[in-house]
Amino acid sequence: MPCFRNYKICDNAPECSGIDVCPVKAITFNEEKQTVEIDNEKCISCGRCEKACPIGAFRVAKTEEEALKIQEEIESDPRTTKDLFVDRYGASPLSEFFMIEASEIGSKVENKELVLVECYVEDTINCLLKSIPIKELTKDLPDTTLFFKASFDNAKEHDYEVQEYPSLLIFENGKLKGKIEGYFEESEKEELINQINSIVNKN
């Protein structure tokens, strides 16, 4: 029976957990097309991809009837990739607008009232749908607040003592005011927002 991928909620990342767990390599990443692909000729319907995907994008049918039902559910899913592809904390950066080098952090926060910098390494990237949109993290902050994403994969020595990625550095008037380490998924959004606001509002 075929394996399905709900393309409406899948971010097509090469780090896809389905690729990692498939024992017969039926799920691959097409570098040319930049998309996750399923070869149902190879698929053995083991269901490992279904269990491994944190957002439920993979579905494995056990009968023809179930295959039709899954296909109908995907086609009627009201979500769209437009809703999915916005920059999020802990997910792959989508817009060059937010991207800076780790070495640029000092100059980007200098003489700025409030700046949030997400430090990440590729190994900590998570699915878009599971991650929190940046605009939701900054909705309660001043309109002048800036947000940047900085890759620390090739970063040399720095002064931020980051122990766990992703990490959110919060600067005020050029000085590091606080730091929040670790990944927060969508279900933990309020906890992260509260931590951010607590740091921003402390004297």
Give the overall average pLDDT: 92
What is the number of strand segments? 11
Query: Structural class given helices, strands, pairing?
Result: alpha+beta
Strand order of the largest sheet: 6-9-7-10-11
What is the helix tally?
7
Q: Indicate the radius of gyration in whole angstroms.
A: 20 Å
Report the uncertain regions. Answer: none
Distance between the termini: 60 Å
Oligomeric assembly: single chain
Major β-sheet profile: 5 strands, mixed
**Helical proportion, percent range:** 10-25%
Q: Strand content of the residues, in percent?
A: 15-25%
Shape: elongated
Please provide the ordered H/E string of secondary-structure elements.
Answer: EHEEHEHHEEHEEHEEEH
Please write out the topology.
Elements: E1 3-5, H1 17-21, E2 27-30, E3 35-38, H2 48-52, E4 58-60, H3 64-76, H4 81-84, E5 88-89, E6 99-101, H5 105-109, E7 114-120, E8 132-133, H6 134-137, E9 146-151, E10 167-172, E11 175-181, H7 189-201
Parallel strand pairs: 6-9, 7-9
Antiparallel strand pairs: 1-4, 2-3, 5-8, 7-10, 10-11
3D structure, described in words:
The model has no long low-confidence stretch (mean pLDDT 92). By secondary structure, the chain is an alpha+beta fold. A hairpin with a 4-residue loop joins strand 2 and strand 3. It has a 5-stranded mixed β-sheet. A two-stranded antiparallel sheet has the order 1-4. The chain is elongated.
Question: What labels would you give this structure?
Answer:
five-stranded mixed beta sheet, single chain, 203 residues, 7 helices, elongated
A few lines on this structure:
This protein is of the alpha+beta class and 203 residues long. It has helices at residues 17-21, 48-52, 64-76, 81-84, 105-109, 134-137, 189-201; strands at residues 3-5, 27-30, 35-38, 58-60, 88-89, 99-101, 114-120, 132-133, 146-151, 167-172, 175-181. β10 (167-172) and β11 form a beta hairpin.
